[in-house]
Design a protein that fits this description.
2 strands, 448 residues, two-stranded antiparallel sheet, 18 helices, mainly alpha, globular, 60% helix
Length: 448
């Protein structure tokens, strides 16, 4: 079958190989003369960077998407975004369902891992809901966005732009075609457009909230007490982060970027910058002019990211909550992690700690390497770029196009690890060892 695997390959290994294959196909297509407006070949490293950024739904670019790539190239990028956002397993399952092929137990297991479902039962139904829900959300948003774009574009261009930005926002990719007005401007042109802001932010939030949360809300509607613990944590943490970061951004930029604009635009910009940095990559304010405090806030949001089993990146909100709970537990000299009247497995601390340790370590190594390769770059810009890449965010202070080939390769690796999951990548390449019956003796050490 299409989804069958050789031997006993884990989902982590299959995921790494599948995404790598998709990226290489995208690289080949984007490097062709037909993909560029100039009709010339795009350098391999730049095509690879763009293909990786699109497939890993990041949004970092070395070229302005509208001005460099032809319509064919833009369609290739859009396809990579959709595949990368939903995941290769969901796309493959969609074709199997369309062809009315049987989905076996092995494929169901891979699907379970792909959407981060706890149970294998009902995973095909969940996948169907994901596919239908995705096209409903993207379709409705595309129509609304096309109407908005039609004010400044001809009908064919407005429809294409509506579809492109709808998919890009839902998949939390951050790619845009606003270069027709001003290069690398993202959505700054629409910072005061209420409908545009609401549509894009809604797509980003829905795409980044997680497919499991979708299903839970679909089944139980507004009955919060019946939601799974995972859904409760995700919804509450997401709301908390949006409210707090909106207020903080408003305060940090009150005398800077938000100083000479209307109250409505201040609120919209604050809300946008509270949601987008957690993985989307769109911006309605000039990120190169952010205050140092706002840059730090943005980096923190990029590290936290979205939610597990979604199109988002970062360490994920559940990992963030587990780490906070573990600190509280340690302070209280307790061995239990309690939240919403439930107790979490204590082993989850080990996984959460592994995720954030690998994540931060990878970022630090990348910062050092890029600083060595390009010492002329400002460290704060390197930090911002690195966390944007590994968090699959796509925001930049403007140094992406000035990166050397080696620096671009580092950013490419970070984007890849950020989409697959740093822990998953390590697990994929690590040598599997069988558990031994003989264990080493225990000895205590001092911590803190």
């Amino acid at each position: 079958m299409l989804l069958s695997t050789r031997g006993n390959m884990s989902y982590a290994k299959i995921s790494v190989l599948a995404f790598f294959t998709i990226i290489m196909i995208g690289t080949f297509l984007l490097s062709l003369p037909i993909s560029s407006k100039s009709g010339e070949f795009t350098p391999f490293i730049d095509a690879l960077f763009t293909a990786t950024s699109a497939t890993c739904v990041t949004g970092l670019v070395v070229y302005d998407t509208y001005n460099h790539f032809s319509v064919f190239g833009q369609i290739v990028i859009l396809g990579l975004i959709q595949i990368g956002g939903l995941g290769f397993m969901i796309i493959a399952t969609m074709f199997l369902l369309a062809l009315r092929k049987r989905i076996g137990i092995k494929e169901r297991g891979l699907l379970k891992d792909s959407v981060n479902s706890i149970h294998i039962g009902g995973v095909v139904r969940l996948t169907k809901h994901i596919i239908v829900g995705t096209f409903i959300f993207e379709g409705i948003a595309a129509i609304i966005l096309a109407i908005i774009f039609n004010r400044e574009m001809e009908i064919s261009a407005s429809i294409f732009n509506g579809i492109f930005h709808s998919i890009s926002a839902f998949c939390n990719a951050g790619f845009d075609l606003m270069g027709r007005f001003n290069e690398y401007s993202s959505l700054t042109r629409y910072s005061n457009d209420t409908v545009m802001n609401i549509v894009i932010l809604t797509l980003i939030t829905i795409g980044g909230i997680g497919f499991i949360v979708w299903e839970d809300i679909y089944r139980h509607r507004h009955k919060f007490k019946y939601y799974q613990l995972h859904t409760k944590i995700v919804l509450c943490t997401t709301l908390f982060l949006i409210l707090c970061s909106s207020i903080l951004f408003y305060m940090l930029e009150a005398n800077n970027l938000l100083e000479n604009i209307s109250v409505k635009e201040k609120i919209l910009s604050s809300l946008f910058h509270a949601i987008s940095p957690r993985t989307a990559g769109f911006n309605t304010v000039d990120t190169t002019s952010l205050s140092e405090g706002s840059k730090l806030l943005t980096i923190i949001l990029m590290v936290i990211g979205g939610n597990s089993g979604s199109t988002a990146g970062g360490i994920k909100t559940t990992t963030f909550v587990v780490l906070i709970l573990s600190v509280i537990s340690s302070v209280r000299y307790s061995d239990e992690l309690n939240i919403f009247g439930r107790r979490l497995e204590y082993n989850i601390i080990k996984r959460a700690s592994s995720v954030i340790t690998i994540y931060i370590s990878s970022a630090l190594v990348a910062m050092i390497l890029i600083s060595l390769i390009q010492p002329e770059l400002v460290l704060s810009d390197i930090i911002f770029e690195v966390f944007s890449a590994i968090g699959t965010v796509g925001l930049s202070t403007g140094i992406t196009s000035s990166l050397t080939t080696l620096s671009k390769l580092i950013i490419i690796i970070l984007m890849f690890c950020g989409r697959i999951g740093s822990l998953a990548v390590v697990m994929a390449v690590a040598h599997n060892k069988k558990n031994t019956l003989v264990k080493s003796p225990i000895e205590k050490i001092i911590i803190g």
